[in-house]
Design a protein that fits this description.
The protein has about 375 residues and is mainly beta. The protein has a single domain, classed as 6 Propeller (Neuraminidase), CATH 2.120.10. The chain contains two helices and 26 strands. The protein has a four-stranded antiparallel β-sheet with strand order 2-3-4-5. A four-stranded antiparallel β-sheet has the order 6-7-8-9, with no helix packed on it. The protein starts with 6 loop residues before the first helix and ends with a strand.
Length: about 375
């Protein structure tokens, strides 16, 4: 996401509910041979008979059978959204990128040499636009990166020699530096995966974990002239805990994560950076069968926990402006309805002392595959 200016964030947060409704997150089935998109778009009904509430408007899917996983604003009213489209017969997915011109979406199916492609994140700077995800040809998935150049998306090679599968989940292209993060599978579990763009090629830049630890990176963010943060999870073989890394002089440094109750698993799914003294990270904690929101704030010296806005998981966080921040989450608390739907989107903003919770679009994701929302 482009953090060169605060203004672009408002447009991005308006459409970012697409990410929540797509069902993206570490709770989705994951493995070396499965994409990080769930559930399959082909299993959704294609009709929509519910109006969205709270001033949200539904944009019909630009491509039938599509799921959107990432969104970015260019600041001039143009948006890019990325994801995947189910192929005929449900045999894999094709990478999908679509541009919003202020009136309608213009989709583009991106052909690669894979049989099953998924784009999971997109980020723009003043010079270029990047998207990352994964592709599968044969048994294992491999990380993939695309760059928009001369009006066309082109694949940029990634050095990856590991035998296990891998996927890139987050990308940041702000302030002249491009970073991509995700996970790869070793024989003993998942490992954090990271790349840095040197201006000509991707360079592998994985953070180190302690002996016996596994983990993954799910989000990365930076602000021009400020720090770079990445978040995810780490495990010593027992419980998963939040993982926060700061990039200093080209290397990742691990930062202490608040954990008032060490008996709960913690997953951090996204991070956003405002300045060197303000950043936000969101995710969820597992309390038995309940998923509690987990919201952290960086004040320039330490991360502290803030009370959540409701008793469900947080997925994405975006700056709304100088007075507050917002985050989007999936509501897993409602039982499945007659149509099988159980997910609802919500939005909340922080005013400096308390959360203000507002209901998101009223349309249900299982009835609107690939749909996008805007206020």
């Amino acid at each position: 996401m482009d953090r060169d200016g605060v203004g672009v964030r408002v447009a991005a947060v308006a459409v970012a509910a697409v990410v929540a409704l797509a069902g993206i997150g570490p709770g989705a089935p994951m493995g070396p041979d499965t994409p990080w998109l769930a559930p399959a778009a082909s299993s959704f009904a294609t009709t929509q008979d519910e109006a969205c509430t709270s001033g949200w408007l539904v944009q019909p899917p630009a491509v039938t059978g599509s799921i959107l996983a990432g969104i970015e604003s260019l600041g001039d009213g143009t948006l890019w959204a990325v994801g995947g489209k189910s192929n005929a017969g449900g045999l894999g997915k094709s990478a999908l990128a679509q541009r919003w011109d202020g009136v309608e979406w213009h989709p583009e199916i991106i052909e690669t040499d894979g049989d099953d492609d998924s784009l999971l994140a997109v980020s723009a700077s003043s010079r270029t636009i990047w998207s990352v995800g994964s592709t599968r040809r044969g048994v294992y998935r491999r990380p993939v990166s695309l760059r928009l150049a001369d009006g066309a998306w082109k694949r940029v090679p990634l050095p990856y020699a590991n035998k296990g599968g891998a996927s890139l989940i987050g990308v940041e292209a702000s302030g002249g530096e491009v970073l991509a993060v995700g996970q790869w599978w070793s024989r003993t579990g998942r490992r954090p995966l990271a790349y840095a763009w040197d201006g000509a090629a991707w360079q592998r830049s994985d953070p180190r974990l302690a002996a016996g630890e596994t983990g993954a990176l799910l989000g990365v963010a930076r602000v021009k002239g400020g720090p770079t943060w990445a978040v995810g999870w780490v495990s010593d073989g027992t419980l998963r805990g939040g993982l926060i890394l700061r990039r200093v002089d080209g290397a990742w440094q691990r930062t202490a994560v608040p954990d008032p109750d060490g008996s709960l698993e913690t997953i951090l799914t996204d991070v956003d950076v405002r300045s060197s003294t303000e950043a936000w990270a969101v995710g969820y904690r597992l309390d038995g069968t309940h998923q509690r929101p987990h919201v952290l704030r960086w004040d320039g010296s330490a991360w502290t926990e803030l009370p959540g806005a409701a008793h469900h998981r947080a997925r994405r966080v975006h700056a709304l402006g100088r007075g507050g921040w917002g985050w989007h989450r999936l509501d897993h608390g409602h039982p499945a309805g007659a149509d099988g739907s159980a997910f609802r989107a919500f939005a909340a903003s922080w005013d400096g002392s308390a959360w203000s919770l507002g209901r998101g679009p009223g349309c249900r994701p299982r009835r609107t595959p690939g749909c996008s929302m805007r206020p």
